[in-house]
Amino acid sequence: MTNEPAIEMTAPPDVYQQRRARLAAAIRRPLVIFAGHAPARNYSTNPHPFRAGSSYLYFGGPPLENAALLIEPRSDGDNGCTLLRPPMGPDDPLWFGEVPSDEALSEAAGLRRDGVADSDRLGALLAGRQAASVVPPYPDTLAWAAQLGLAKADDDELLAIIHQRLIKDEHELAAMRQAAEICMEGHRAALAATGRGQREADVAAAFLAVLVANGCEPSFNPIITVRGEVLHGQGYPNLMPNGALLLCDAGPEEPGGYASDITRTWPVSGKWTPIQRHLYNTTLRALKEATAACAPGRRYRDVHDLSARVICEGLVEAELLRGDPAELAARIAHALFYPHGVGHLIGLDAHDMEDFGDLAGYAAGRTRRPEFGNKSLRLDRDLQPGMAVTIEPGIYLVPAIWARDDLVKPLADVVNRPKVDALLKDHIGGIRLEDTICVRDTGGPEVLSEALPTDADAVAACVGVSR
Ligand code: GLY
Predict the structure, then answer these.
(1) Which among 40, 246, 373, 423 would be 20 to 30 A from 49, CA to CA?
(2) Are 439 and 290 in contact (CB under 8 A)?
């Protein structure tokens, strides 16, 4: 048995070389992409789990704390690229175990043997030169980049990264399918635990147990709550009363860092009330129609607007809104019930590349619409084969919205306020349904989370059922 640990990589070495070569062809100055480090709790050897920066991973950086990739302009992805690794202290193996050798690292990253150097050489390699950096938001790494005098990568440099990362290759998709499988197993465990436990925390524990058993971390703090109207609720403090809906928006990232993000909502008792069922089926129709619309060339903003119209149809059927659904959607009346966007990019993060702001999510020349609801749309690009996105419409009864005159008064003529107030009084909460999909050339998108039921009766039948 060797002491050398395995190196977790998603793609074969030549793929990383090709990615770096494409990036090198688009840049004019050296680019340093940092891995970051594990933030410490109260002292450095009591850290949170380490997760390397996503761009560093994408371009072939092995998951090593305080490492960096240096990519020179016009590099072929090997010559002109260097992996800077932190030097080992003599006591490090005692506390942290062995680390991979330079040979193993260079092989995994697709670099020649002398393409691995100690990170304290980075300053000398860049001395007297203008260079740019991509730095994950970890204090020590930011300080290191600042000490080296590195500029932040400019928009052209970031776009060279973004345009590659937008389109998922077969290795990335395989990792995302694996993440989706584990995510669906977690959701099934959560559905089963709903019947056995009495607290949100019981359900969260069941979901997280599946992740831990599969060597995964959550891709974001799981949202598991009977207060689904709190869009990004944190913590699991509540009991789950009979009659409530439980919203479970949760996903893992698999060991290579690729994320899944799935939401299902179900009745705690396994039985829908008529209004819950109607609002659920409306959300489901929006999910299905928006998903089917995700074809190459389709503008994602139009997919959002389509989902808004379907939500308006269901709200009119429920007599919560009055009028023509298309006109209601044009007035953004749905945002009183559906105040967020239809989804976001997903990949090496649940919100892929949102660290680059709207440069990643918005195509050149496009900006966010300013209105309540519309302004929360995170993505407005034309879809292309290989783009992975989420589709996640919802319907919520949010007291904080209905308390706001600036939002409600302009739409008072189309709102059935007594019925809204009755639902608020009943704490109907929130319903969201979310799948992770990948756009394909033909035949509609691949729905990575398709095997997890969405049909109202099929979902309810899973509540409390152990496999
Ligand atoms: N599904 C969690 C999020 O979109 O932020």
Answers:
(1) 246
(2) no
Cβ 254 vs Cβ 173: under 8 Å = no
106: three-class secondary structure by DSSP = helix
Structural domain 170-461, CATH architecture: Alpha-Beta Complex (3.90)
Residue 371 has pLDDT above 60, yes or no: yes
Task: Say how many Å lie between the CA of residue 221 and the centre of ligand 1.
Answer: 9
CB 341 within 8 A of CB 371: no
Asked whether the predicted pLDDT for residue 1 surpasses 60, the reply is no
Q: Which residue from 261, 378, 379 has its CB within 8 A of the most atoms of ligand 1, so it is best to mutate?
A: 261
151-152 vs 132-134, strand pairing mode = parallel
> Could you tell me where in the chain the CATH 3.90.230.10 domains are found?
170-461
Cα-to-centroid distance, 232 and ligand 1 (Å): 8
Secondary structure of residue 118 in the 3-state scheme: strand
The whole-model pTM stands at: 0.95
Q: How far apart are CA 312 and CA 308, in angstroms?
A: 6
The residue whose CB lies within 8 Å of the most ligand 1 atoms, and thus the one to mutate among 287, 344, 376, 431, is: 344
The residue whose two tokens read 């913590």 is 235
Share of the chain above pLDDT 90, in %: 91
Interval 160-201: pLDDT, tens:
999 999 999 999 999 999 999 999 999 999 999 998 879 999
Mean pLDDT of the chain: 96
Report the pocket of ligand 1 as residue ranges, CB < 6 Å. 220, 249, 261, 263, 344, 434
Query: Which of 221, 223, 287, 346 most suits a substitution to test ligand 1, by most atoms within 8 Å of the C-beta?
Result: 223
How do residues 204-236 score in pLDDT, each as one tens digit? 999 999 999 999 999 999 999 999 999 988 899
What's the confidence (pLDDT) of residue 437? 98
Which CATH architecture describes the domain 13-165? Answer: 3-Layer(aba) Sandwich (3.40)
